[in-house]
Amino acid sequence: MRAATRDVWQSLAQPGLLKVPELTVLFWVIKLLSTAMGESTSDYLVFNVDPYVAVVAGCVGLIAALTLQLRARRYVAWIYWLAVVMVAVFGTMVADVMHVVLGIPYIVSTVLLAVVLGVVFVAWYRVERTLSIHTIRTPRRELFYWATVMATFALGTAAGDLTAATFRLGYPGSIVLFAFLFAIPGLGFRFLGWNAVASFWTAYVITRPLGASVADWLGKPILGGLGIGDEYVALALTAVIVILVARLAITREDVGHEPISGAALDEVTDPY
Length: 272
Known about the structure:
mainly alpha, 9 helices, 0% strand
């Protein structure tokens, strides 16, 4: 049994082609749009369809999207971003279920999900000795990557609701707060020499509450929101995401380099 487990674990460490996009301005734009789209889509489904049916459907969609992503040999724009969108939808549902169904306060769920994210980061680093997205070339690293992405989406949803509702900042106040926090790691990396990997993941986590706060501000009539409607916000954001991902599929401007062999694989320096 131990030998079989070791063989499976070793097979997951075999290098292949890069499975995530290069970091461009469009990466951050689509990431923010996907977080907002996931928030509005999840909220519409949960409150307008049976919540249990919505969660099951979101889970099935997530499994299907991640299966496509994990089976792909290399990064493919539409497959990758489909997986991100489904993580956004289901991650929102996870955080909402913790509060609405289980009655867990936002501050407790935020702390709990932050601990979960920290555990994933620690496990990833202990096994792989790197958290760089430019080394996502093995199945094992990709599994750690998507576990991290899921945790960041759930955490960001809880954090956004915490500031808007519990701390009474409302959606406009939350947008200002998270936009400020989002800018800090980028400026720190560019001008103060902050660690690239830490700066990236800090900004990545903050995109979730920032995008979710924007979606809630647009869609909801409470906490300073405009009340346009979650369904209309979700449809509009989906259309924009499809257009931008189609552009990436055509231009391939976010496709990374060919695999790096040997020890150099772990020496890649992340751009922010």
